[in-house]
Specification:
The structure holds 2 protein chains of 2 kinds.
Chain A (H helix, E strand, L loop, with lengths): L3 E9 L4 H14 L4 E4 L10 E9 L13 E4 L2 H6 L9 E5 L6 H4 L8 H11 L1 E5 L1 H8 L5 H11 L7 H10 L3 H20 L1
Helix pairs in contact in A: 1-7, 5-6, 5-8, 6-7, 6-8, 7-8
Chain B lengths: L1 H7 L7 E5 H11 L4 E4 L6 H16 L7 E4 L3 H13 L4 E6 H6 L1 H10 L5 E7 L13 H7 L3 E2 L4 H18 L3 E6 H4 L1 E6 L22 H24 L4 E5 L5 E6 L2 H11 L4 E6 L1 E3 L3 H9 L3 E5 L5 H13 L4 E3 L14 H11 L28 H12 L32 H12 L5 E5 H17 L5 E6 L28 H7 L4 E5 L4 H13 L4 E6 L3 H10 L7 E3 L9 H6 L4 E3 L5 E3 L9 H5 L5 E3 L4
Parallel strand pairs in B: 2-3, 2-4, 4-5, 5-7, 6-7, 10-11, 10-13, 13-14, 15-16, 16-18, 17-18
Antiparallel strand pairs in B: 1-8, 6-12, 9-11, 19-22, 20-21
The chains are: A alpha/beta, B alpha/beta.
């Protein structure tokens, strides 16, 4: 395969962004696709902004050039906008709609943008898909499955070089039996959300 | 977690698995039959040692032998010495640390090269260009040059594994410890790894005496020329090393690129994307460089482009080589202004430089920017972090102009508003040494801060200095029972070690007492009034005083409660009592508290870790536990 696929995952430290990137990487290995994942650990984990990149196909580098992401997957709206440098008009920006307000807003007098303005700004640069991953996760049975919802949405976006089942299987194999069903529901919920978005 | 562990210890040659660069280094060491691994944790190196620890703990749990001995040592210098001794007994050893850790270990490192090793010894330096998690971005390749260590630099996780595995052989062949120099983008990149056979460790070593291991001046004089001869041998290995190779892109004429480390991956991809016709000399063994190979490559080129992050380490060596060999070659790099000595490289930076040098169009779109201002989101002290309570109490107790020297750990985040409790920071252990200096230089009051792991690492000598010279300082030890920032590793104050075995716990206050400190306060920072009073007493005391602020890391507490199925107490704000005075947000600064659009204050239940300190902070008694009246 000669095509390169670049996915940027963003969110807030503690939201499981690194775990999601790791799952994508494992799914790619399972699908026998070339893959590199880049993460940031340490200081970034204490509630800071987190960015991971996943590149698949015939790639050498774990990082991507600006404006070349196929998907920007964000578990928090402002974090999607923070990483807008990676998108082009064809990039699919899939973002959760639930803000996590940074302490700099409460303490430092910074502003969290109005969500409508934020989404409009993203739309001027890329294709936007908004999902309420918190709600879908809750409906599936556990808020903690939010990342599974996001990965389901990514699988439905059609950019992955392997079937959605491979990704779902990778998510489920690391989980204890009792959590499998709720994660399957969350994944399906994420997929449906994109199909109807 | 468990799954990774099974995979990483599997003896299935040829199997492909996904590993983090750091995990790949651990796997490489296991494939080489490593006997002893030591470290002091530090990002971006931590997962190398954490993986050894995880495997050892699981083995301990199953009452099995992990095959190796592993230790979180008290600091990097001790870590290097423990592993060096094992090497002197013929065992294979690995010591890993972050780049600045090698500064701590450098005294040992420099003379270790004179003495040389017996069993193969890999010293991993994890450098941090861009200072993602560090106080500087020093380029540790100069340590290889400085001390005389052979050095390998991997470009991918797979290569990191192979260089570790084969590095042990190189180290043994040369009788020199080998520096494996990595950077954050390698340590924290995941890629597919092809497993090799796991070699059996040697297990028990034997120390054969040799007077040349004692570096008295006469020995040192005899050993220095030996080191230079060993480096000549190393250069011969470098000439033949498969890690140094030439890669051809397109139909090259006479332009060559020299690249090493993770920048090579950007060079390769961007050369392809820009349809360049070039040859790339990829250097994996970067000390000593294979001078004959480099000279030959240089002489086949009219133009050379040097792509290496941080300092012009290779660039300057190539310039010297060009001078010595009389090569007529134009060298582009840092001094030509095409590449920076700052921060990390990216595919964008490499593409931009190539488009200028080769006069071709950069095919990538100019990055778009948001027209809306995005609020910053720096890391912060967690909700419920006991450090916040300590800082809040000190702020109430100390005069306004007090100086707060800080140290390396989560508590450095106390620099941020509204606490602003960090005034100066150099390196591990520097808080108390600087406190001593401030006390002679100024009349201002001084309260310094360090964590418990930092205290054991390098915080004790400056306390002894403060006692001996009777410096009027307050030294605070934020004792949260763990090495929190790097991922909750144990330290000498914890009752277990990195292999999950029982260990002798050393009490911080006992050591402080032993250092001769006359005024010691031990407080629970979650009792804010008492803590404030204790700091007031410490500040009034003439001479050195120590406050040990003891409360476990809230993340460990929450984890413990979840495991024990204990409820995490939630709190709420009575809107009728709340005067919106902003003390809880504007002074205490807990990130779980927020303003709603109408200006009312609320607690985000998803973020709250249930410490309840906001109840003590509220001047109007508006905050109370859920379920209470």
């Amino acid at each position: 395969m000669s095509k390169k696929i670049s996915i940027v995952l963003t969110g807030v430290g503690g939201q499981g962004v690194i775990t999601a990137a790791n799952i994508l990487g494992k799914a790619a290995v399972k699908a026998k696709t070339g893959v590199f994942v880049s993460e940031i650990h340490g200081m970034a984990q204490r509630g800071g902004a987190v960015v991971c990149t996943v590149r698949m196909g015939d790639v050498s580098s774990p990082l991507l050039p600006s404006g070349t992401a196929d998907v920007l997957l964000s578990t928090e709206p402002v974090e999607a906008l923070r990483n807008i440098c990676y998108v082009n008009k064809k990039t699919k920006v899939i973002t959760d709609i639930n803000p996590v307000i940074p302490f700099t807003v409460a303490v430092g007098g910074e502003q969290y943008p109005k969500l409508d303005d934020l989404f409009k700004e993203i739309q001027t640069h890329a294709e936007l898909y908004k999902i309420d991953a918190n709600k879908i996760a809750k409906e599936a049975g556990a808020v903690i499955t939010k990342n599974t919802v996001m990965l389901g949405a990514l699988a439905a976006s059609g950019v992955l070089p392997f079937k959605a089942e491979v990704l779902l299987e990778t998510i489920l194999e690391d989980l204890p039996e009792k959590y499998k069903n709720v994660n399957k529901k969350a994944f399906d919920g994420g997929m449906r959300a994109i199909q109807s978005a | 977690m468990v799954l990774i562990m099974i995979e990483i210890t599997e003896d299935k040659p040829g199997k492909q698995i996904l590993l983090l660069g750091n995990e790949a280094i651990t796997r490489g060491a296991l494939e080489a039959g490593v006997d002893v691994a030591t470290t002091y944790p530090g990002t971006p190196s931590s997962e190398i040692a954490d993986t050894f620890s995880m495997i050892a703990k699981e083995a301990t749990r199953q009452k099995k032998d992990p095959g190796f001995y592993f230790q979180y040592s008290v600091n990097e210098k001790v870590a290097l010495e423990v592993a060096a001794a094992a090497s002197f007994c013929g065992l294979r050893s690995l010591t890993c640390m972050k780049h600045v850790g090698l500064n701590v270990a450098s005294d040992t490192f420099m003379t270790y090269m004179y003495v040389g090793c017996r069993g193969g010894h890999i010293i991993v330096s994890a450098d941090d260009p861009y200072c993602h998690s560090s106080q500087n971005e020093q380029d540790n390749r100069y340590f290889a040059l400085f001390g005389g260590a052979p050095m390998l630099e991997p470009t991918t996780p797979q290569e990191a594994k192979e260089m570790t595995r084969i590095g042990f052989d190189i180290s043994e062949q040369l009788h020199l410890p080998l520096l494996l120099r990595t950077t954050t983008r390698l340590n924290h990149a995941r890629g597919p790894i092809i497993l090799n056979v796991l070699q059996k460790p040697r297990k028990k070593g034997y120390f054969t005496k040799d007077p040349l291991l004692v570096t008295v001046p006469s020995t040192a004089r005899a050993k220095h020329p030996v080191l230079l001869r060993q480096l000549e041998e190393a250069e011969k290995l470098s000439e033949k090393s498969p890690f140094n190779e030439i890669i051809t892109i397109g139909k090259p004429k006479d332009i060559g690129i020299i690249a090493s480390g993770v920048s090579y991956t950007y060079v390769k991809e961007m050369a392809e994307e820009l349809h360049l016709n070039v040859r790339i000399l990829k250097l994996g063994m970067t000390h000593p460089i294979p001078r004959t190979m480099c000279e030959k490559f240089m002489k086949s080129c009219s133009t050379l482009i040097m792509v290496e992050e941080l300092e012009p380490f290779l660039e300057n060596q190539f310039k010297a080589l060009a001078y010595d060999s009389g090569a007529d070659v134009k060298i582009y790099g840092k001094s030509s202004g095409h590449f920076s000595r700052l921060y990390e490289y990216t595919p964008d930076i490499v593409a931009e430089a190539f488009s200028k040098i080769f006069k071709v169009k950069n095919p990538f779109p100019k990055p778009v920017f948001s027209k809306i201002k995005v609020p910053s989101r720096p890391p912060s002290l967690c909700p419920g972090c006991p450090h916040r309570a300590t800082y809040y109490a000190v702020k109430k107790a100390a005069p306004k102009e007090a100086i707060y020297p800080t140290d390396i750990g989560c508590y450095t985040l106390g620099k941020a508003p509204p606490l602003e409790m960090a005034d100066v920071l150099l390196c591990m252990g520097s808080n108390a040494g600087m406190a001593c200096g401030f006390s002679v230089a100024t009349q201002q009051k001084i309260v310094s801060f360090m964590g418990d792991s930092t205290f054991f690492h390098s915080g004790i000598p400056p306390i002894i200095n403060a006692v001996h010279h009777n410096h009027d300082v307050v030294i605070t030890i934020l004792d949260n029972r763990t090495t929190a920032m790097t991922g909750h590793q144990p330290h000498p104050g914890t009752p277990f070690d990195g292999m999950g075995r029982p260990a002798t716990l050393i009490n911080v206050e006992d050591v402080v007492k032993g250092c001769g400190v006359q005024h010691i306060e031990i407080v629970d920072p979650n009792k804010i009034k008492e803590t404030t009073a204790a700091f007031k007493r410490a500040l009034e005391f003439k001479g050195p005083s120590v406050v040990v602020s003891k409360s476990p890391c809230i993340l460990l507490e929450v984890q413990r409660k979840r495991k024990a199925a204990e409820e995490i107490q939630l709190y709420h704000i009575n809107q009728e009592i709340c005067k919106r005075c902003k003390t809880c947000i504007g002074r205490f600064g807990c990130p779980a508290l927020y303003f709603a659009e109408d200006g009312s204050v609320h607690i985000d239940a998803a973020q709250c870790n249930g410490c309840g300190n906001c109840v003590q902070v509220c001047p109007f008694g508006a905050i109370s536990a859920e379920g209470s009246t």
